Amino acid sequence: MNIVSTVPYTAPADSEDQSEFTSHYVLPGDRTRGILLVCDHARSTLPEVYGNLGLPASEFERHIAYDIGVEAVVNGLAARLGVPAVLSCFSRLLIDPNRGMDDPTLIMQLSDGAVVPGNRDIDDNERNLRLSRYYQPYHRAIDAEIDAAIADDVAPVLISVHSFTPAWKGVARPWHAGLLWEDDRRCSDLFIQALSADPNLVVGDNVPYAGGLVGDCMNTHAVKRGLPHTLLEIRQDLISDAEGVSQWIDRLADVIDHMVVNDQIKSLAYNRASGDK
Ligand SMILES: [Zn+2]
Is-above-0.85 flag for pTM? Predict the structure, then answer.
C-alpha cells in the first residue's frame, strides 16, 4: 500500500525549544538479580515541534511508529521481577534507537509503504539534533545501568523486548513469540525451552528475523560488551489489550523468575576476565 501524504510539513527550526520532551525513562530495580530490560520502541510519541512528521495521525497507531503493547509488558515485568528497565519515549519514526548511527534506516524515509515527509531531505544539523536530544540520551541511560551493575560485580543479561506484526506482506506469521540472538544463543535457548513447554505456544528461534545487526541496541550494549542477551519479540495482536498484556506479564515473569531462582541467569554471565564464552 502506498500512502501519499497530503499533510503539509515544515521542518522545525533548530532553535525551537524541545526540552519538554523526555527521551526515555528508567525504572529502578534490584541490579543484583542480573537482568536489565530494555524497550527501544515503547512509544509512538514525538516532541510537539515535529507534529506528525507530515504523516496522517493514524500512522502513529501502527507498528511503523512503535511496538504495540511492549511498554505495558516491560513495565509489568520490571515491577513483578523487581529489575531495572530503560524505555525510550520517542517514536522510531523520529530516529530508530535500534539502529546504528551509520545505518541508512536510522531515520526512515519510507516505512511499510508510508512516505515520511518530515524525514525527507533532512540535513546533518537535524540528524545530529535528533541523535543528541533523543537517541544518545537513551543509549547513555542503558550504558549507565550496565556500568552500575558491573560496578556491583554483576554482568547483567540484557533482555530487549519488542513486538512484531501478525502478518508481513500478506503472509501470516505463526509464532506467538520469537527469540533473537547474535553470537550467544544461551539466553534465547532458556526462553525457547521454557516457553515451548506450553504446547499452545509456537516459539521462534531467531525468527521472524535473525538477530545480529551491527550497531543495533543488542549489538551495541550486549555483544560488544560481552554480556549475555536475548531479544524477545512478541506478536503484537497478543499484547494489544490489557488482558493479553497481563497474560504475557504473568507468563514471562514466571519464566524469568525461574531462571533467576535456579541461578540460570547467573550462569550465563561470561567469564569476562578469561574471555571464556
Ligand atoms: Zn521493535
Answer: yes
